[in-house]
Amino acid sequence: MNTSHRRTFLGQLSLGGLGAGFFRFQTPFAFNTNDQEAPTNLIIDADTANEVDDLFAIAGALLAPRLEIIGLCSAQWHTQARAPRDSVGASQALNEEILSLMGKTHIPHPIGSNIPLVNTYRPQNSEAASFIIEQAMALPAGDKIHVAILGPATNLASAILLEPRIIPKVVAQYLGFWHDLESGTWSKREFNTSNDPNAVDVLLNTPGLEFHVMTASTSQHLIFEKTLVDRQLKGKGGIGDFLVERWENYDRFWKKEDPEKARWTMWDIALILALATPSLATSTQVKSPYDNLERNIYAYTSIDETAMEHMYWKNFQQYFDK
User: What is the mean pLDDT of the chain?
Assistant: First the structure.
């Protein structure tokens, strides 16, 4: 997810913060028993090359015990001011590098579409869309597969248009929008949505499709600090140093505040950890946006950002201790 095109109708964004010290992780966290249920089968669909948080989210997902990652798809991000013409290719390359560094190249990693939907009726076929269809259709009756959409919804929307029979077999977990719970109002002036508004409309306007959204209004509160990232990852080699180098070398050109990049909003991790540890997020049934099919969807309306970060680093510590 990228902040360059985000505009909030809720007012000025607050960066908040988690505090600078490692001491906040000394207090044990209690997690609900439902966090120990059978693993969630998950396909991750990410515009990985667009920003920094996608890489951290994918790595974290691969380490989360409750998530069974069965696929990692790449997505386009064409509206970013410095996006290359083959933005999906850049995402694909990073996906493959992450899987290689973590010894996970056996996980399928199909490439997605480099072009958004031109309307809500015409799919953009791709290896990623075909993979989603294949995985969904192979499920036993009554089972579902979750698709975590960390960028535009092009690939899942295309899969649904190509094969509507997957509708009862998939759960869309989308990262996007701004949402005001009290008024029930939505804003689609947000980066992921802007990269393929037609695809989002396909998902929202599809009867019977289970739709969950981690809004920017909620995920904005999960912020990592560079000092702690360095303490946890720097000098560890492999994926650790790779993530640190991405943070340090990525040009966050759209953000004038914090030029030293001491903090980074981890929008994508909020969705991944809400799936990995459901007790750390509150999901609320809400009405869909007024300009879409009127139906009930689900929005993550709050997160325990401190516990989320604790869980994230706990999984990494276990990974490096092996």
Answer: 89
SS (H, E, C) 198-227: HHHHHHHCCCCCEEEEECHHHHCCCEEEHH
Six token digits for residue 293: 């099919």
Question: Which residues fall within 8 angstroms of residue 102, CB to CB, at 6 or more apart?
Answer: 59, 62, 238, 239
The model's pTM: 0.89
C-alpha span between 216 and 221 (Å, rounded):
9
Going by pLDDT thresholds of 50, 70 and 90, the confidence category of residue 184 is: confident
| C-alpha distances out from residue 239 to 53, 97, 104, 309, Å | 14, 9, 12, 18
**304 close to 295: Cβ distance less than 8 angstroms:** no
- Going from the C-alpha of 131 to that of each of 96, 127, 256, the distances in angstroms are 16, 6, 40
Write the CA distances from 80 to 95, 98, 137, 265, 299, integer angstroms.
Answer: 19, 22, 34, 17, 26
pLDDT of residue 14: 31
Which pLDDT band, with edges at 50, 70 and 90, does 34 fall under?
low
Q: How confident is the model at residue 294 (pLDDT cuts 50, 70, 90)?
A: very high
Give burial (CB, 10 Å; 0-12/13-18/19+) of 234.
middle
Exposed e or buried b per residue across 198-230, where buried means at least 16 C-beta atoms within 10 angstroms of its C-beta: bbbbbbbebeebbbbbbbbbbbbbbbbbbebbe
| CB 245 within 8 Å of CB 233 | no
Calculate mean pLDDT across residues 98-110: 98
Sheet holding 170-175, edge to edge: 67-74, 40-46, 145-149, 170-175, 210-214, 296-303, 281-287
Closest CA to 316 of 267, 280, 273, 265: 273
Higher-confidence residue of 1 and 73: namely 73
Tokens of 138: 């192979």
